[in-house]
Amino acid sequence: MKHISLLIPEGESSLSNIEASYKIFTTVNQALAREGKPPLFKIQLVGLSKQTHVTNGLFTIQPGLTIREVKKTDLVIIPAVHGDAEKVVADNRPLAEWIARQYAQGAEIVSLCIGAFILASSGLLKGKNCTTHWLSAAEFSRMFPDVNVAPYKILTDEAGIYTSGGAYSSLNLLLYLVEKFAGRDMAILASKIFEIDIDRHSQSPFIMFRGQKEHEDEPVKKAQEYIEDNFRDKITVNQLAGMLALSRRSLERRFKRATSNTVIEYIQRVKIEAAKKGFETSRKNINEIMYEIGYSDNKAFRGVFKKLTGLSPVDYKNKYAQA
Question: Which of 261, 185, 274, 178 is nearest to 233 (CA)?
Fold first, then answer.
């Protein structure tokens, strides 16, 4: 039987993450029991203390065990914890150290959504790939520059460490784990019981590009503002560099460091975000939106749109356009 430590960190933990994790693995045990088979999972709530407030103090969860009482476990699940990320990490330092010790003893580790901040603070993600909520990706990269964050992914699996994207994409990671430990048939059954799309692989359709302006490089901010105000026009890197009295090489280097995008990528993202809004809020056809955002090549537009959203313009419009 696989022992699962479902953590209840200090702070405003996600009740939905905690309940979904408990329910899905418990449901697998119940399905096995109906088949006359023994349970696969023993799930216990584990915290720093025996009483933890979640969801801004609205609810209280009483973990059955503290980390001091769990000497060895097989699978550790870290739910999202909302609030100031620096404070969340500081408040849960003993939990992160315990997670690292469990991993050293052979446990596998799971983080759901922004639970990745606690996982990264353990040092276990250094040099590895992970995902988290796309809204928190920039702050995550700032706090943990030695981790390869991929905010477009629904989940990652590397060296016994699993991470999920934002919010309810955690359900896809839980199903992935059910499939790994209990088989495809059981994962499909769970997906049907909980009505979860089992084979969703990307957060890209949900990402809203807001630009990364939490930096102190004023020339780069001016370049970003110029791009956002003039994205319908043809903008070149040389044009921006001349406007800011910088060399092209210097602008590209500083822009990438400040925004995590090249200048060209930033221009593309601003254009595609405008296209997405056009599809969502108007009845204009694809060519009309394409021309409005400054594209004249249908093939190029479709290629960039699919790359950044994971959907073709037609599929995105069909999915999100006004009825």
Answer: 274
